[in-house]
Inverse folding.
């Protein structure tokens, strides 16, 4: 899975080292050499898992689809964005999930955590 392009639909085969990568940035991270340029690219569709080649000198809009399963693999790339947020309901409506570190928290009471007096009282019964 590519960490640079979240919606990558194909893998590319690097012509220089003959290895498969999700994107050019993945090749740059793993290899010490630069990605060689070529006019014919080899792709592997992530939907049908079949390989195909495309001549990049005569590339047209109709070439944006996998020839085997018709998957549209040329999409606007979605790159990961750092987001600060919270999961759950809106805190302004239901503040039960918030914890104020400034106030001393009460110890939660559970059947597994009893103080010694409670434990002795139960054993005497």
């Amino acid at each position: 899975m590519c960490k640079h392009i979240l919606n990558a639909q194909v893998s590319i085969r690097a012509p220089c080292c003959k290895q498969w990568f999700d994107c050019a940035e993945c090749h740059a991270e793993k290899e010490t050499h630069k990605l060689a340029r070529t006019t014919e690219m080899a792709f592997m569709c992530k939907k049908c898992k079949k390989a195909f080649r495309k001549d990049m000198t005569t590339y047209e809009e109709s070439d944006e689809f996998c020839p085997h399963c018709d998957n549209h693999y040329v999409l606007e790339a979605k790159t990961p964005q750092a987001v600060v947020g919270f999961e759950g309901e809106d805190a302004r409506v239901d503040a039960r999930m918030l914890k104020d570190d400034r106030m001393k928290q009460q110890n939660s009471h559970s059947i597994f955590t009893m103080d010694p007096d409670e434990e002795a009282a139960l054993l005497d019964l």
